[in-house]
Hints:
heterodimer, A: about 500 residues, two-stranded antiparallel ribbon, 21 helices, 2 strands, about 0% strand, globular, B: about 100 residues, mainly alpha, 3 helices, elongated
Amino acid sequence: MTGAxxxxxxxxxxxxxPLAAACLSFLFPRRAPLPGIxxxxxxxxxxxxxxxxxxxxxxxxxxxxxxxAPLGITLRTDGPALILLLxxxxxxxxxxxxxxxxxxxxxxxxxxxxxxxxxxxxxxxGACNALFLSGDLFNLYVTLELVTLxxxxxxxxxGSSAALDGAMRYLLASLLGSLSYLLGVALIYGAYSTVxxxxxxxxxxxxxxxxxxxxxxxxxxxxxTALFPLHFWLPPAHASxxxxxxxxxxxxxxxxxxxxxxxxxxxxxPATATAGITHLLGILxxxxxxxxxxxxxxxxxxxxxxxxxxxxxxxYFFLLFPLARGEAAATAWAGVLFLVLAHGCGKAxxxxxxxxxxRVAGHDRLSDLAGAGGMLGARLLVFALAAVTLVGLPPSSxxxxxxxxxxxxxxxxxxxxxxxxxxxxxxxxGYVLRVLSLAFIESQAPALPAAPRILRWPPxxxxxxxxxxxxxxxxxxxxSLVDAPISxxxxxxxxx
Amino acid sequence: MSLPLIYGAAGVALFFLxxxxxxxxxxxxxxxxxxxxMGSGVFMVFIAMAGRTPGAPDPVPHAxxxxxxxxxxxxxxxxxxxxxRIARASGRxxxxxxxxxx
Lengths: 496, 102
């Protein structure tokens, strides 16, 4: 029994179940939520089993159809993949429950949206999980395209003019990104005759061709991750989508190309990456933090504010490139991967509660939310709870993650990154407090109807999970380093 | 200059030509066409890679191109459907210059 528990490829079920459920919900649109909810309840269990398996028995690779690399497709279950799977499990479960209540069946247009939401979301979920487990460049391309295609369709779901424009912009930017990535893959295959990440890691050498391929793939993935200044498509697409979709796009989808970037830079091309280039990525990350936060500060609509905050938070992930060096490498790696998990939960909770506020108030204009006592006040409290993680206050998961990153900045003596992290935190508390201050303004707001329970509890639960993850941060931090391209000890300069 | 190299260089040239057109033209159909030309360029590089060694061509890039074509067809159809919906909803065949301030 324990033998099967430790040897069965549990993580593969996180791909198979959502894809099967996607087909079922497409074939039986009237019963579409049923396979969705079954998936949402089972996938996290398989993720948990896979985590247990990894910690007990170590990483494993699964060769599909018995074809071994360099020809076959390998699926790898390692620490970084499982951190992302954890994110997808937590965000997926919460968003699925929320979506049950969000798409009401009384309104005809929403019934239509619900019919398309479930198959697309389940396809997206399966594709994300497949991407996290993929071990070769071409399979990463295919899964990334599956993720993007279903995200684009989801972003256009409500059919409004703004949503269609946002989705089109998203599509064109993604096409540019993915073709640039694919050209890089073509160059790599031409030079090394394999696309397997592990094999490439051993044979890639730092020549001009590798540099060109890495540059093409990186630029493509930067467009897809929406790193400043290539973020132009993100706010309109994320802000005009229905709330559950925005939560998925911000919480989960932007992390998919990010993981590919991490795998490329730290596993395949560590020798090709020079200090200057890692600083360039770090500077773009700093630009994203400052620009995204400033834009979030001056938004007039709550949803756009949250979307620009995603632009800012993406910047933090890119500080990994300059920070992960020398003896601080493992510290920075663990911090950033933990931030991926923290941001996924916190941001998804923020978008979901924003959806509830929009549903209750009928709009999300900040100026008209003033005096939001009563029902709306409680929602703003949930917003604040989720924002604690985002700002990085103790004991939230965001705090631990940023703390590890700050430690890495100190150990490597790169004070300027510390200053940017601190400034980003200040600006983040600025735009969050701007929202919270609304609840304290006295005004004669008309009584608002109460939101249904299913729109109230899932965001609160996810916000609390994000908050408490900080107290249980030991396991995710250990997990992120299992079979990671970077190993070492976690340094905590501040306690010395 | 060997034949694969010529094809490879032509593929890269097509890629950048398409990328330029993607930015230069506002009309959505032109943008979608430009992306398709970029894709064809990438596929040409793959095909050129298949002939890089003497003897029988390497079949793996061919398989990758077939997969790539499937992906591109899917993307093109979604893009066309979106373009039609945009034209129906707003009467435009291009994206608005700047996001309207809410």
